[in-house]
Model the fold of this input.
Amino acid sequence: MPGPFCTAFLAGSHLRRCAAGQPLFHRNDPAPDFLGLVDGLLYIYSEAGDEGSRLIFVAHPGWWAGSIAIVGGTERRCTVVAQAPSILLSVPRMHVEALARRDTSAWRHVAANVAQQYDSLSLLLLAHSHPDPRVRLLISLVRLHRFNDGATVFQVTQSELAEMAGLSRNSANRAMRQFAADGLIETGYGWLRIVDPVAMTAALGQLRALESGSERRRVG
Done:
């Protein structure tokens, strides 16, 4: 957000603190505010379909939640839980609406966050629909990196990453061992690090190019 707008946007905010394990909100809860993570770690869960709750994202400081509900005046779309003690900025919906009446560009800044959430969801759907476990995991890693402002270290287990990618733990572990051997990632107990984001993105592109080439040969 530009400086003057950011100052006005945050002027109506207040700090909210959450203990580890505390839900910020559940799917279908009312959405009275726009929330930005200042410090801590958030786990985002989807509750669509008959499979129950599923981890779909791990959010680092700088991540914002609630833009879609703010624009539409609707309920929350997912469940968000503090994985570690967390501090958030809560910007009331009424403040956003009042600011928008004074400065019509306010909705453009909110819409930018909506677009980011849409892009992240599009990658999530692509990962879950792809037949290759390696592609699923690489897309999931790209999501974590891209939508957490370029972060490379994540407090996430391999089982949790498998859940994000829609894979069994065994399938995910095999792919993760290959990525580690290729120097793309490092893993430890409850954490992973993307060693080379550029190489990781290139590896994803190569796998998808091979897939496209195979598909063209089958058609031909």
